[in-house]
Design a protein that fits this description.
binds manganese (II) ion, 3 domains, 6-stranded antiparallel β-sheet, about 25% strand, 18 strands, alpha+beta, about 375 residues, Rossmann fold, binds guanosine-5'-diphosphate, 4-stranded antiparallel β-sheet, Dna Ligase, domain 1
């Protein structure tokens, strides 16, 4: 789960990581009021669940009082397009009104889990700011990687390696050390999958300040992260994915034309491959899970049919824990409720498959049944031909 920059900065403050003074605002009036406690320049920052806002026009520095309201009106409600939002952009519903800081250097700093080494990796670079992707691609040697054993935590040598690599001024050494320790503790305590500060600023006064903040929490840990759940902003989520999460379905919206309903993530991946091999593109990833109920199957099909790009649906089920007859009942219910508007190919195998096929055959619905995966792929190819 992603949180907004201002929420991440609230957490930063709790863990002793210095951030500029600032306040979130939902309206122009709130923004102007929030700026009254600050000195010029004031930074007006769009709050969306995507980076690259600066380049997209979502971060503006107001050097005069009247510019605060001007930029607020400009950014609030705008459709912000960045390299991370995709061409459709994101509508800005919230702002962060923040004290401008006197930037001397912009560093990059992040913490992520590293599966390959089963450790936590801290990545840092003197080349922070808005072009970090380019630094990583063209000059990867400028990114310091520091591996932390999660059983031992941060050691003094980690701090020295990072501080020297980033050329932290002597005056800021102590606060840099406590910043790193605070961020690491936050990362572990809140079950984060990412914390990122870009830029981590060294000010002209040689102080360290997190000018930006990005924080993702592992959704599987949300049951024990009640304060993080309170930060959820559903207006930032894909509407179909949001609906799917209400029904406990693992659904990811993609931009292809063949919807698919599959049980099991591995089978879902394989199914997406055969769709691709047939010359079509999957419109979604959807795993109804091992123990899906017929109601969930019904929700899954109606969800897929809501996607206007869908030209056909491939249902690929291996009846194990989810029995074929239970599944078939769900499909029949869904088809009757939603009305099938596109060709549907069903490939079903496993427990109670005979009973499942009988239910589908007797339903009077025009479903195409596939003998096996190769046959299913051919039938999909015919739909998109
Ligand atoms: P992002 O583009 O979404 O990553 O948003 P950032 O918060 O990182 O802002 C983009 C850029 O704006 C930063 O790289 C800085 O160069 C600049 N910036 C952000 N905050 C301040 C500030 O307080 N003072 C100044 N002078 N520049 C800022
Ligand atoms: Mn940034």
């Amino acid at each position: 789960m992603k949180v907004h920059e201002y929420q991440a900065k609230e957490l930063f403050t709790q863990y002793g990581i210095p951030v500029p003074a600032g306040k979130a605002a939902f309206t122009v009036e709130e923004a102007v009021e929030a700026a009254q406690d600050l000195n010029l320049p004031v930074v007006v920052k769009a709050q969306i669940h995507a980076g690259g806002r600066g380049k997209g026009g979502g971060v503006k520095l107001a050097y005069q009082k009247k510019e605060i309201e001007q930029y607020t009106r400009q950014i609030l409600g705008m459709n912000l397009v960045t390299h991370q939002t995709g061409p459709e952009g994101k509508k800005v519903g919230r702002l962060l009104i923040e004290q401008g800081i006197n930037i001397d250097r912009e560093l990059y700093f992040s913490i992520v889990p590293d599966r390959a080494s089963a450790s936590v990796v801290i990545m840092a670079s003197t080349e922070g700011g808005m072009d970090i992707e380019e630094v990583a691609a063209k000059t990867p040697e400028k990114i310091i990687k520091c591996f932390v054993n999660p059983l031992l935590g941060i050691q003094k040598y980690h701090l020295r390696e990072l501080a020297f690599g980033l050329k932290i001024p002597n005056k800021a050494m102590k606060s840099f050390g406590s910043m790193v320790e605070g961020l690491y503790t936050l990362f572990m305590k809140k079950d984060c999958s990412l914390v990122e500060i870009n830029p981590l600023v060294i000010t002209a006064e040689e102080e360290i300040v997190a000018a930006d903040a990005k924080l993702d929490v592992d959704s599987n840990a949300l049951f024990r992260q009640k304060d993080i759940i309170a930060y959820r902003d559903t207006s930032e989520e894909d509407p179909l994915e949001l609906k799917a999460s209400e029904y406990d379905l693992n659904y990811i919206n993609l931009d292809g034309n063949i919807g698919n309903i599959v049980n099991g993530a591995g089978l879902a991946m394989a199914t997406m491959d055969i769709i691709q091999a047939a010359g079509a593109k999957p419109a979604n990833f959807l795993d109804v899970g091992g123990g899906a109920t017929s109601e969930q199957v019904e929700k899954a099909l109606s969800l897929i049919l809501e996607d206007e790009n869908v030209k056909g649906v491939l249902i690929n089920i291996f009846g194990g824990i989810l029995r074929c007859d239970v599944f078939a009942k769900g499909i029949v219910q869904a088809a009757k409720q939603a009305g099938i508007t596109v060709p549907v190919v069903v490939r079903m195998e496993g427990t109670n498959v005979e009973e499942g096929r009988r239910i589908l055959d007797e339903s009077g619905l025009s479903l195409q049944t596939a003998e096996d995966l190769a046959d299913a792929a051919q039938k999909i190819a015919a739909i998109v031909a």
